[in-house]
Amino acid sequence: MAEATVMERMPASSKPVVASASAAAASGSRIGFEDVSVTYGSLTVLHSFTLTVNPGEIVALIGPSGSGKTTALRAVAGFVKPSSGRILIGDRDVTYLAPYDRKIGMVVQNYALFPHMRVDENVAFGLRAHGAAEDVIRKRVPECLAMVGMAAYGKRYPRELSGGQQQRVAIARALAPRPQVLLLDEPLSALDAQIRRSMLDELAKLHRDLPNLTVLYVTHDQTEALTLANHIGIMRDGRLQAFGGAQSLFRHPPNRFAAEFLGRANLLPASDLQPGEGDRAHVRFGGTVLSARNHHRLPKGSDCLVCVRPHDFRFTRTATEPNSIGGTVVSVQWQGDVHNITFEAGGQTVRMTSTPMASPPAIGEAIAVHFDPDEVTLVPEDARHG
Question: What pTM was estimated for this model as a whole?
């Protein structure tokens, strides 16, 4: 994929109205990658990466370890030098600027607070490094601590705080110098599940309070990306495999890798695509004809994959009903608010989720399930279509 540029916009009603002066100032927070490559010796870890993050947006980069997502973020921060290409913040070419000249804030997963400094001193550190006057520091530090819900903790040391509280302080420190761009590198991965959920809420609120702040968020956690991001980039082997609006990318992944990495997906091999009404198409899965949305306009007669999310399946009485398949239950797992059911169908292992059932099917039992064709999409078998 040569280029993926954020072109969509959030509806006007969903974004706060800001003064034209503020909008003009915000334009300086755009992040641009222009054909950026990063090479270590003979190893290229980022290949011709092109991406634009528009002012005020949150863009998440996700992918497995070694995919290049953290390298891209560190290149924006100035900790990695590209072997080719340019990096822009606003209209400034920052490719070879020192990190402290880039007007960025950065938060990493291990907090990186100074243990010998109290909370308020940690938050003031960046301001002092930028030569801020003491009266500015006295005003700005409590503002930033209040912003992250830590106003009452200014005189504590980091060791006296929980992990979630330390991460809030790290965010306050990053925001204190009023950066144009906030870079978040796996900021929640060191937290337990309950605190992570709370911090996701805090980050979402923070962005509502600072609508002009542009955020580049690196994570391996798809839930974090879907919860926070306006747009998501999926990376593999140093290349951008897919990019788009969070909901669109989840509902209509452009290739197999995107479908499997962003949310669990059943990818049923299908053949003999035939056009249907509107953007629907009919395909054969084994001996069964299934209908789904042909969002990517795959050609007539082609082989493809039917992408069905586990929650899109519903039980039905017989596999002869439209858009239904039959199978044999392999496993049943209860997880409190859902039942996860795995079954074999047409030589494929298929997973579905259901609301808790008083009498779930037994292992070895024959079942029939169906899906709404408008909730399911066809994905090209060849990843080059993505």
Answer: 0.84
